[in-house]
């Protein structure tokens, strides 16, 4: 099957590469000529385990191609996936200019039936706007060519995107057209062998499903962070509570890890966008607003603890930081808790000495060279001469530590752990002060 993907960002590149890998002919289009040139050479603009070799092998066998030519892109696939960004507008709503620009491009160039597939995360009602944009562009040409628009949201986690694409629990397709259903079934048939994964629903329900899934997961996390904060104040251990409630299958163990707040390009943006959509239809989404504000507060929690350790004065202190990315296995620092922490430390007159297995280049890109930020080659160097250690990301490299060694290298024997990586008793036995999230030791 011939498939065009607009946008070679995270979602577009993973979708295009995976579809080529199962035998489809895929053409990825991007307006960024430099990015396309680098992709043709096998240079990958994102960090995602497994993607590089997959891109290279599918480029080599000719099934995955890249272009900057819109006419070529539109002519290529019967399915035209829109996978461009939807960054938040100033008021938190999703900015649809890139999505609508692609719709316009499709309308300008199409000469036969196409299915426009909304893959980007877009507010409910966007498919109608995409439909109108394509129709307007066709009308401007004086053409009447048949086309359909469907919604096909993605449920990929960064760091596990290929696995999620291949083995995901469901493939949601929002359409009321039998022709579209058939084409989408053909597209996804390689992933639909073990059991029926395709779920057809109306377009608006599909659009809302994407936001509802992310908002539900974000709600679980904020709920757990609230319980962690309570546990701290009530002298309980949230990790024991987590086991206690997760064992109930109605609750489940997944996405109830307390921590220093959720980050990334999805949860913060999508929860806000959904709350914004609610406000637009005169509904106050009280729960969504609370999920967001609990998260904002949680991201400040590490600094609050740190500041209490030093009686509110971080002037001249050096803070060792392990983990910059918003979660392991990615170099993505969008809305990462590490950023809230670093910025607060800098504002308080402290310095940061940081290590991350993947995100240091990204950190340098965001913050540039500055006197109060040193990026070091490994976790050991981050700790040397530091006044305290803060952990923001649960990279597996951080899971085991020689606590005796740590104590002898830190100027103040303090760990503030935003991910609850260690057994508090073991850390304390080594003579370190250990402040985790919701583990009994309130400062
Ligand atoms: C999320 C969803 O999990 C995907 O299903 C969805 O497709 C994607 O957004 C998207 O909309 O594109 P992602 O943002 O890559 O994926 O990362 P997650 O693994 O979901 O983690 C998000 C944040 O929640 C991280 O900061 C993580 O540390 C935090 N988290 C996660 C917790 O604090 N506790 C948990 O128990 C789980």
UniProtKB/TrEMBL annotation:
Its EC number is 1.1.1.22. It is an enzyme of class 1 (oxidoreductase). Pfam families: UDPG_MGDP_dh, UDPG_MGDP_dh_C, UDPG_MGDP_dh_N. It catalyses: UDP-alpha-D-glucose + 2 NAD(+) + H2O = UDP-alpha-D-glucuronate + 2 NADH + 3 H(+). Residues 320-424 form the UDP-glucose/GDP-mannose dehydrogenase C-terminal domain. NAD(+) binds at residues 30, 35, 86, 121, 158, 269, 334. GO terms for molecular function: NAD binding; UDP-glucose 6-dehydrogenase activity. Keywords: NAD, Oxidoreductase. Pathway: Nucleotide-sugar biosynthesis; UDP-alpha-D-glucuronate biosynthesis; UDP-alpha-D-glucuronate from UDP-alpha-D-glucose: step 1/1. Belongs to the UDP-glucose/GDP-mannose dehydrogenase family. This is UDP-glucose 6-dehydrogenase. It comes from Halomonas korlensis.
């Amino acid at each position: 099957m011939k498939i065009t993907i607009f946008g070679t960002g995270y979602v577009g590149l993973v979708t295009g590469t995976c579809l080529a890998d199962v035998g489809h002919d895929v053409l990825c289009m991007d307006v960024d000529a430099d990015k396309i040139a680098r992709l043709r050479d096998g240079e990958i603009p994102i960090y995602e385990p497994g993607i590089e070799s997959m891109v290279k092998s599918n480029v080599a066998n000719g099934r995955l191609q890249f272009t900057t030519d819109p006419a070529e892109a539109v002519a290529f696939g019967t399915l035209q996936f829109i996978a461009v960004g939807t960054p938040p507008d100033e008021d938190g709503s999703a900015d649809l200019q890139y999505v609508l620009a692609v719709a316009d491009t499709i309308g300008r160039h199409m000469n036969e039936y196409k299915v426009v597939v909304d893959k980007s995360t877009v507010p409910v009602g966007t498919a109608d706007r995409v439909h109108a944009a394509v129709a307007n562009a066709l009308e401007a040409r004086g053409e009447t060519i048949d086309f359909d628009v469907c919604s096909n949201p993605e449920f990929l986690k960064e760091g596990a995107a290929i696995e999620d694409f291949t083995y995901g629990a469901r493939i949601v397709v929002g359409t009321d057209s039998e022709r579209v259903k058939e084409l989408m079934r053909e597209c996804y048939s390689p992933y639909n062998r073990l059991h029926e994964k395709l779920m057809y629903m109306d377009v608006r329900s599909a659009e809302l499903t994407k936001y509802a899934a992310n908002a539900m997961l974000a709600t679980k996390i904020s709920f757990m962070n609230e319980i962690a904060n309570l546990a701290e104040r009530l002298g309980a251990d949230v990790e024991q509570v987590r086991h206690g409630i997760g064992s109930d299958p109605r609750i489940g163990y997944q996405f109830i890890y307390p921590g220093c707040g959720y980050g990334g390009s999805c949860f913060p943006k999508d929860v806000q966008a959904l709350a914004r959509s609610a406000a637009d239809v005169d509904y106050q989404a009280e729960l969504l607003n609370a999920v967001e504000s609990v998260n904002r507060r949680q991201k400040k929690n590490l600094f609050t603890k740190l500041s209490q350790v030093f009686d509110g004065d971080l002037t001249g202190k050096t803070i060792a930081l392990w983990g910059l990315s918003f979660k392991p296995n990615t170099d993505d620092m969008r809305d990462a808790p590490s950023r809230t922490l670093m910025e607060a430390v800098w504002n308080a007159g402290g310095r940061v000495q940081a290590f991350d297995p993947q995100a240091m280049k990204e950190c340098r890109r965001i913050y540039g060279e500055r006197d109060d930020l040193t990026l070091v080659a490994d976790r050991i160097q981050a700790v040397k001469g530091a006044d305290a250690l803060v952990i923001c990301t649960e990279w597996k490299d951080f899971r085991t530590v020689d606590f005796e060694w740590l104590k002898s290298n830190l100027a103040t024997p303090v760990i503030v752990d935003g991910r609850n990586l260690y057994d508090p008793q073991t850390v304390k036995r080594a003579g370190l002060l250990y402040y985790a999230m919701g583990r009994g030791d309130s400062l």
